[in-house]
Every structure is written in structure tokens, then in C-alpha cells.
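Task: sequence design from structure.
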């Protein structure tokens, strides 16, 4: 896709404010035709600039424990372990990072006992993991999906 212009950024901003906006609502807001909004939106979706998704609140599903796990692995095993970690439904994010840990993982659990079992039974199965640190989220101050275009 070619470079985004000012209208594209305005469309993205409106979708971020309310992902339920229709093409016609955005067109009225931006004083352009509905066809223009439809065309631009589809072009951005098809090129991977954004996608429409739903955001589920894990707490409403009974997943009240969010764990952030720092993991160190044996040299040469990073790709293998990263793919293995990504296969677990409890894990929502696996990032390979620089610094003290090789991976930072975010995962949700029903309770501390399930987290403990996941660490001691599931993660312990990997002979490539040689160290991990588990932290439990106490409070979220910001929780967004993706990158925000505005500072509000």
C-alpha cells in the first residue's frame, strides 16, 4: 500500500474512537462520500494497516489472574521455545526481547493455583527453559489493542 494520507489517518482515528462506526457515519463526520470511506477502509484492511476485532474482558470470563513471565532459554532454542509458548491458549502474548530475559510472556488464568500448575507442570516440561520469573498483575493503568494515533 502506498503511504497513508491525512484522510486515512482521520478514518483510523475515528475507528479507534468507535470501531462500530459505519462507513456513512464516518463519511458524514469527514465530509466525504461513503464510497470514499468504504474504498479507503477496505484498502487499509487488505494491506494490513488495521483490522476489525473484538476485545474480550478476561475477568468477565473468570480469568482474574494475569501473569507476566520472564523466561530465559538455552542458546539456539529461542525460536523453538517461542513457537511452543505461542501454542498455549492461556498465553496471549509472547515477545522475544533484549535484556535480562529472552521472552516476556503474558497469560491469563482462573486463579493462582492454575498459574502455579502451568508453571510447575506445563512450562517445566521444556528442557530448553532454564530460568523464569513470574509476576502477577496487580492493577492495569492502560490496556489498549495496538497503537493509538491520538494521545487521548
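Answer:
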Amino acid at each position: 500500500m502506498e503511504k497513508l494520507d491525512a484522510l486515512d489517518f482521520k478514518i483510523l482515528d475515528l475507528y479507534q474512537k468507535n470501531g462500530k462506526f459505519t462507513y456513512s457515519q464516518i463519511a458524514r463526520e469527514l465530509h466525504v462520500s461513503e464510497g470514499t470511506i468504504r474504498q479507503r477502509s477496505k484498502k487499509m484492511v487488505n494491506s494490513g494497516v488495521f483490522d476489525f476485532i473484538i476485545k474480550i474482558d478476561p475477568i468477565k470470563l473468570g480469568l482474574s489472574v494475569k501473569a507476566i513471565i520472564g523466561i530465559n532459554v538455552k542458546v539456539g532454542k529461542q525460536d523453538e521455545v517461542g513457537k511452543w509458548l505461542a501454542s498455549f491458549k492461556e498465553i496471549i502474548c509472547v515477545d522475544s526481547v533484549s535484556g535480562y530475559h529472552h521472552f516476556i510472556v503474558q497469560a491469563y488464568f482462573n486463579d493462582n493455583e492454575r498459574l502455579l500448575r502451568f508453571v510447575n507442570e506445563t512450562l517445566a516440561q521444556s528442557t530448553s527453559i532454564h530460568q523464569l520469573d513470574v509476576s502477577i498483575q496487580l492493577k492495569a493503568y492502560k490496556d489498549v489493542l495496538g497503537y493509538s494515533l491520538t494521545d487521548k
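The chain has a mean pLDDT of 93.
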